[in-house]
Specification:
With about 650 residues, the protein is an alpha/beta fold. Helices cover about 35% and strands about 15% of the residues. Helix 2 runs parallel beside helix 20 and helix 7 packs antiparallel against helix 10.
């Protein structure tokens, strides 16, 4: 297959833009800031605070995300703030928080290296999380066993001791069958279950029907391989269970996460060094965005926004009056736009036009808004729909602050370059708009913002900038400046004293729910999506730069399906779902099985895969079912002449 032509990189924004007579034109900073503020003021005055929504940025600093949620709550007076966390790991946060009280992964990367057994479930970590995978390889080289649960034989699966090739959307039956086998084989860690959990008997009843033969029939995984993983996980001294979007990007993503947490509770593989549960975050600060409260149901430090005492603490500190009630998440904000209940949105560093499922629907919703402000480093497809575009600094190299990675480690980020002339720091821009809306913000530096956050979030209190620099980063929780907590979470569950042990962790007997987009004679192929090593997200920051690995977007088919369809590698085909149609060249992949095809979302400017994905969402977390669309594949007419 010939390699794709290099796409020209996006050009940095260096001058504000304002829509005039339907066209974006250059404007001064004062004109753009005045226009942004006036539009927010106008819409809140006519529709109330909930007419406003904030899309915060998982690639920007903790400090920026803190200020974005503060702007939303303290300046506007709503809790409608969210980020691309909703697109990927919101079910992980929801599931972990429900069972344990906090939404972070439970272990450090060092613990991965020291594990005896590692399960990567719905995760092609070698390509999507290559740094994390280096820790996995160190463990494997020290003798740890690696099991990979994935419908595709990926480059990650090729390192596994065991590959469980399940059918897309059958994660819960597989998890329940593993649990049933553990229970039936008397491998349950009953001392942990009795001391630290609740709901065990109800869970036993729920998994009882999922015998090995029944699970093999439903999931496609051989019964003996299910049994092997069940016994290996239950008997491991230090077992790690990690997952990514193969678990979360489903209409029942939170239930999928809960089904994996059940396995850790059943075996006591949590709350100890080397034993844990770890969602692998794909962007540099998606963990930090949630930690900072840039989500609709939690204030900074995962403090419950519905708790009147917590809300009062923040209102007193900010001189504000937001309600102790959940706001709309990103999915709900898009629905509110369609209803006309949300009429203005402030989008910082996000590109929902190309990242949301059924993206043409997203374009229609944003196009109907009265006032859209986009703050970004490039004129993305989303920015092209805006009424005001504000050029920002690049968080990773042009600002000071902190990021938080998947192991909950907060690390300093230092300004290495000055932004190009005409671009401004995100926090400075927000401050200018806040001032125009009547707020008196005095924040000048990232450290000023961070110190305010430390005063309000107990899990960050002990993390001064000086201490973060001295120690090379600190994992939360860190409640004081004189000590460090263990690298793993939830050690309390192993305490003998009930008072120290605290609230028990609850088993979740979740039901199996197949993919929403049904396979039929008209749409017989299952499309699943994911990442490749050579590219990043919607390609805004990567597709314009050369890589020896990059071939652009393809429709990956197994050899049998290619033969059945009569198509060859490199041949363009039409790909149709119930929502739309795209065209892409074929690529043959021996790691796929008949009926299963694969695409990425890295090249939407050329082939927009999210035109055909389905918007069916998890009712708890709001994450769409990117992993399970039903499609048809058709040969294109031969061109003549």
């Amino acid at each position: 297959m010939s390699r794709r032509k290099k796409t020209e990189p996006y050009v940095r924004l260096t001058q504000p833009l304002v829509r005039d007579a339907g066209v974006l034109r250059p404007a001064t900073w004062d004109e753009a800031l005045d226009s942004a503020a006036e539009g927010f003021r106008r819409n809140v005055a006519s529709g109330g605070p909930d007419a406003f929504g904030m899309f915060s940025c998982a690639r920007a600093t903790n400090e920026m995300n803190y200020m974005a949620q503060k702007f939303t709550r303290a300046v506007i007076g709503t809790n409608n703030v969210d980020s691309c966390n909703r697109t990927c790991h919101a079910p992980s946060v929801a599931g972990l928080a429900k069972v344990f009280g906090s939404g972070g992964g439970t272990s450090s990367y060092q613990e991965i290296e020291d594990a005896d057994l590692i399960v990567l479930w719905g995760s092609n970590a070698r390509e999507a999380h290559p740094i994390f995978f280096q820790h996995v390889l160190k463990a494997v080289n020290k003798g740890a066993k690696l099991y990979v649960v994935d419908p595709r034989l990926t480059s990650t699966g090729k390192w596994a001791h065991g590959w469980l090739r399940l059918k897309v959307g059958t994660d819960i039956p597989l998890a329940h069958a593993i649990a049933r086998e553990i229970i039936a084989s008397n491998l349950t860690n009953m001392s942990f279950v009795e001391r630290a959990t609740e709901g065990f008997q109800e869970f036993v009843k729920a998994v009882e029907p999922w015998t090995l033969p029944v699970a093999e029939l439903e999931t496609g995984v051989p019964a003996e391989l299910i049994r092997e993983l069940a016994h290996a996980y239950a008997k491991a001294d230090r077992g790690q269970l990690s997952w990514t979007l193969g678990i979360t990007e489903h209409h029942n993503g939170t239930d999928n996460v809960l089904s994996l947490i059940n396995l850790s509770l059943l075996t006591g593989q949590v709350g100890r060094y080397g034993a844990g549960l770890n969602p692998l975050r794909g962007q540099n600060n998606v963990q930090g965005g949630g930690d900072m409260g840039a989500i609709p149901d939690r204030l900074p430090g995962f403090q419950d926004i519905t708790d009147p005492g917590v809300a009062k603490k923040f209102n007193d500190a900010w001189g504000s009056n937001f309600k102790a009630a959940k706001g709309w998440n990103l999915t709900q904000m898009l629905e509110a736009m369609e209803r006309g209940d949300m009429t203005t949105v402030y989008i910082i560093g996000e590109n929902p036009v190309q990242s949301e499922a059924d993206c043409e629907h997203t374009v229609k919703r944003l196009s109907n808004l009265d006032h859209v402000v986009v703050q970004d480093i490039f004129l993305t497809k989303t920015a092209q729909l805006a009424h005001v575009v504000l050029p920002a600094a690049a968080a990773w190299c042009e600002t000071d602050g902190t990021f938080t990675n998947s192991e909950r480690r907060v690390q300093r980020v230092r300004k290495a370059l000055a932004p190009p002339e005409g671009a401004r720091d995100d926090i400075e821009i927000m401050g200018e708009i806040a001032t125009r809306l009547g707020a008196d913000w005095q924040h000048k530096t990232g450290q000023d913002v961070w110190d305010e956050l430390r005063g309000l979030s107990p899990i960050h209190t002990g993390m001064t900038y000086d201490r973060l620099e001295k120690l090379g980063g600190i994992q939360w929780p860190c409640p004081d400046e004189d000590s460090l907590e263990p690298s793993f979470l939830h050690g309390r569950l192993w305490e003998e004293d009930p008072v120290k042990r605290g609230m028990p962790a609850t088993f979740s007997p979740v039901p199996h729910s197949p993919p929403v987009d049904e396979l039929t004679e008209e749409f017989p192929f299952r499309l699943t999506t994911g990442r490749r090593l050579d590219s990043y997200n919607t390609g805004v920051q990567s597709s314009g730069f050369e890589s020896p690995l990059r071939m652009g977007e393809t429709l990956d088919l197994c050899p049998q399906d290619a033969l059945m369809l009569g198509v060859k590698a490199g041949e363009e085909v039409a790909i149709t779902s119930r929502r739309g149609q795209i065209q892409a060249p074929v690529r043959i992949d021996d790691g796929l099985t008949p009926g299963l095809v694969f695409m990425t979302f890295h090249f939407p400017d050329e082939i927009d895969v999210n035109i055909i994905t389905i918007e069916a969402t998890c009712p708890i977390a709001g994450t769409a079912e990117y992993k399970a669309a039903a499609i048809r594949i058709d040969k294109l007419p031969v061109k003549v002449g």
